[in-house]
Amino acid sequence: GVVMSTSGGLSSDWNDRRYEPDAVWAYQRLKHPTPPRDGATPIDAFIDHHLQQIALQPAGTADRGTLARRIAFDLTGLPPDTVELARYLDDKRPDELATSRYVDRLLASPHYGEQWGRHWLDVARYADSSGFANDYERPNAWRYRDYVIRSFSADKPYDTFVRQQIAGDEIDPTDPENLIAVGFLRMGPWEHTGMSVAKVTRQQFLDDVTDNVGQVFLAHALQCCRCHDHKFDPIPTRDYYRIQAVFATTQFATRDAAFLQSESTEGFDEQQFLRQRLDRYQKVVDAINAKKFKLEREWYAERGLEFAPRQVKEKAGTDPSEICPKNYGLTAQDLGLERIGRKYIERHSWELDRYLPLALSVYNGKTPQVRGTYRAIKMPKNPLGDGELQQVSILSGGDVFSPTLPVQPGVLSVVRSDPSADVIPDRYDGRRTAFADWLVDPNNPLPSRVMVNRIWHYHFGKGLAGNPNNFGSTGAKPTHPELLDYLATDFIRGDWSVQRIHRRILRSEAYRRDSRHPDAEQLDDKDPLGGALAVFSPRRLSAEELRDGMLVASGSLNRQIGGISNRPDINLEAALQPRQIMGTYAPSYQPNPLPAQRNRRTIYALRLRGLRDPMMEVFNQPSPDASCEMRSTSTVTPQSLTLFNSKQSYDRALAMASNLRKTHRDESDIDEILKRAIEWSLGRLAEGDELQLLRGHYEKMLVRHHSLRFEAQPIPATVTREAIDEITGESFEFVEELERYRQYQPELRLHETDASTRALADICLVLLNSNEFIYVE
Description:
- By secondary structure, this protein is mostly helical.
- It is 44% helix and 6% strand.
- Helix 3 (64-76) packs across helix 6 (110-124) and helix 25 (647-663) packs across helix 29.
């Protein structure tokens, strides 16, 4: 076995631990191995060498049409543009060169940053709300999302990307980009209420950020070490708390950060809806308070007593019998409406921050006393004024009330070149900068391996190391360790360019292989797990790609880049379901009024932790509560039912049918319309008897729709809730106004369409449900 050295001060028992070499592969120094001979590219040299060792012949190269769709979805998350597709297919240069040029054009697309930003946001746990029982919206979180998208589009060097997210506010607090970037540290779910214990919720943040930084940048779930030394990896509990100490002086703040010229501020006029709601609920609260004071005055007048507010009487020591009872004369309806109005005012006042140049950010200083997070936390004028300058200690059993030995800020001792050196300063600021510098130090073998493995995973569906967030003993070992190291060192030497790694991968024969092998039995026998990469593994579109692809096929996609989160249509029952927040109802989900606002790319959709979009959830969009290393891909009945029967799917099919009609005026030429439907949805020409089959189905549906009549479906303007008043225990009702629905403009309604358009929509629905549309090969 291999002896792994750790930092001083640990027991001799720890220092004597031994590990099998393949169990601690991730901690070994990076090497830049020479590729074996006989490979079209360095990547192919490593992969072909392994295939030769197991005597497995790889599949041939996929045709350009297949590759065009594969590369387009991989790099942009969208089907190939018809112009770009034709340009690629008609390119007379050799396949390798034509593909290389096609890749370059897609990397230059603004949609590239949206797709690869989405991957990062999975890992970072992006959401627009805080989660738990008080699922407050985080009104400025959208700026972090757009920062990530901008960074990938600009091919920002990954080491800079890391440093900005860990320590941007320390590096240069005058740069708004840096203040936005450290929003990464606040992406996890968190709450603190008047009933919370501040010491506990503070520790929850420290545990959360320590573990997430470990998973995202080091591929280690450090939470295992919170209570005891890691059982399988050379990571002692002391290391866990030393890393936690890096963040011990990190505090929450919503900070001033001017809008960048590259940021979109479109849609800010939607704040009118919030202001209308604030005005309405303020009137409700004012009316009930006026009633309360009127009843109190009458109570005092009836008894011949002088009126004064309750607090004044109590402070003066007035006999309780001469003080008007609390909430005198108010009904359960009054009390319930006052509570809801007060809470709504609190929530919506905070949400107006969305339209201001503010960043969800952090600063360094003492930990302040926090009573409840009902509004934005502001940075104090003196960060070292009030509060506690937090000292981290090893917690017995991970219990915040059982501190033992104090620790100084530090890093993973197993990957330090000099275990006795203090690489992190012990002063209150500068800790995160030093930690970020350690992360991106070329001598640290983990972050570069982790990132190139993530890139590989998103291109092939599986990383060279099978668990992108876990390079420890319990994670899957690399199938091609030398290739992983080759790419990791190439990543560093290439100025940490993510796009450089894309180019290396997408130009390889391994990536361009067909998804069908000429000898399926040999493939199953010699490579049952698919790690040898003899064929390309098909994948189903992700939830976002599926929705975005349907928007493209229907001609409805709004390609606006960046800006505040939009509110697409979701299932109406889910949108209007009663949802509790902070002891009262959360506002109902209301989509944007205009189709162009609703039909933006899914990455811009508002992500509420407490209200998931059912369509996204059924197609395995991960919860934002935990870092997602890889998305699961289930195949379950609700998926087919959703695609075929949901209003969202049929709306897209109907929009597609309408647009097909508009672009082809001759309605009698149904074959030409059907040909175009195939091109729009599948990106290719009709083949074989497809036209005949589709025409037959169209004619059947036409007969059916001539016999059907549709009425206008009502659009909700209000929703009535019934609740229990917590003071009286009696029920009361309140009516919630749905402001956005009052101005809601549907794209197209069934009662406004003719039979031929609806019949064509049924054809479009079939195409959008086809395997060819749903899968990338």
